[in-house]
Automatic annotation (TrEMBL):
Coiled-coil features, chain-numbered ranges: none
Keyword Aminoacyl-tRNA synthetase included in the entry's annotation: no
SUPFAM superfamilies: GroES-like, NAD(P)-binding Rossmann-fold domains
Cofactor: Zn(2+)
Protein name (database record): Alcohol dehydrogenase catalytic domain-containing protein
Originating organism: Actinomycetospora lemnae
Pfam families (UniProt xref): ADH_N, ADH_zinc_N
Family: Belongs to the zinc-containing alcohol dehydrogenase family.
Length: 376
């Protein structure tokens, strides 16, 4: 990306080798996330020129001198949020809040404040430490997470962002209990991942709210029990279906007014988890008296409140065991030079998730086609 709203270019860049605490990965596949499109449109500011992409999986080609947790030839899924391991959040078990990572991410560098990408003499910024819209990437050590070699890397590429975000909001933050009721606002990739997580957590009712009827039908395939479209009486419908209010609400969309609806639709003592990021100017309000009297918990969840090195392998093990139908998430695959088409499809709402395929055999996904089926 040379600048926001300019056509994306497919070019050859120079990539420096990994430093002592970094890993060189050959990408087999990369997911296409709405954040990439929002950055291209300028909605999410990011240094440019840069290489977009932050959902990836591939094979380790080289490791830095201090790396011991992965080796050349290992299959890895990539996490866009590395951790330093020493700040107050990392040592307390909340690595997604790492104080060292965020400044470097927003600056478009790796953790040491420098870049490995160049176009001639011009530095090229990284995107969320990964820049996976490329055949190769140099990433921080903690971003490379070793996974089972039997997992298709096309599936593994998706887990590093959208799937982990929705799954972790339910499992790590809401801690959904068996038999409880859950309402998910938004049936995109993150919302569907939250639905899957609610199902494997044993939720008795899983409601999903989305304005697109086809998405509601799709959500039922992932475990939703009821589908609702936004309406003036939405809160009353949720209360009726759940016997007074849902135990947990997940806002996977971040749209205007959703937090208020989620608050009203949960039972006293319920939990509302905010995942979708609202507009930076949004200032939602809540009824103060009810906030105290009903003891509802309102919390944010960044990146699924996860420990990526633990949660990503766990999710993939559940996929391998047949508990999480992650393969249903992939709507279409693309070649790298079709990224522009992928963004058009995503903005038109035609994708649950799109995948760019670099290595058909390792990805387990055909390189380009409307009807995606995992390879045997």
């Amino acid at each position: 990306m040379t600048a926001p709203n300019e056509p994306l270019e497919t070019v050859s860049l120079d990539l420096s080798g990994p430093r002592h605490d970094e890993v060189l990965v050959r990408l087999a596949a990369t997911g296409i996330c709405a954040s990439d499109a929002h950055t291209h449109s300028g909605r999410i500011p990011s240094p440019a020129p840069c290489v977009l992409g932050h959902e990836g999986a591939g094979v380790v080609e080289r490791v830095g001198a201090s790396i011991t947790h992965v080796a050349s030839g290992d299959h890895v899924a990539l996490s866009w949020m590395p951790s330093c391991g020493t700040c107050r959040h990392c040592v307390s078990g909340r690595p997604v809040l790492c104080t060292a990572a965020a400044p470097a991410m927003f600056a478009g560098t790796l953790l040491d404040g420098t870049v490995r990408l160049h176009r001639g003499s011009q530095p090229v910024s990284h995107y969320s430490f990964l820049s996976t819209f490329a055949t190769h990437a140099v990433v921080p050590a903690s971003s490379a997470i070793r996974i089972d070699r039997q997992i298709p890397l096309g599936i593994a590429s998706l887990v590093g962002c959208g799937i982990l975000t929705g799954y972790g909001a339910v499992v790590n933050k809401a801690r959904v209990a068996p038999g409880s009721s859950v309402v998910v606002f938004g049936a995109g990739g993150v919302g569907l991942s939250a639905i899957m997580a609610a199902r494997v957590s044993g939720a008795g009712q899983i409601l999903v709210v989305d304005p697109v009827a086809a998405k509601l039908d799709e959500a039922r395939l992932f475990g939703a029990t009821d589908g609702l479209v936004p309406s003036d009486d939405l809160v009353e419908q949720i209360r009726d279906l759940t016997g007074g209010g849902a135990d947990v609400a997940v806002d996977a969309a971040g749209g205007e007014g959703i937090l208020g609806q989620a608050f009203s639709a949960t039972v006293p003592g319920g939990t509302i988890v905010c995942v979708g990021i609202p507009d930076v100017r949004a200032r939602p309000s809540l009824p103060g008296a009810e906030l105290v009297r009903d003891e509802k918990v309102i919390t944010g969840s960044l990146y699924g409140s996860s420990r990526p090195s633990v949660d990503i392998p766990s999710i993939l093990r559940q996929y391998a065991a047949g508990a999480l139908p992650l393969d249903r998430m992939i709507t279409r695959s693309y070649r790298l030079d079709q990224i522009g088409d992928a963004f058009v499809d995503m903005r038109a709402g035609r994708l649950k998730r799109g995948v760019v395929v670099f290595d058909e055999h390792l990805a387990g996904v055909a390189p380009a086609g409307d009807d995606v089926r995992l390879a045997a």
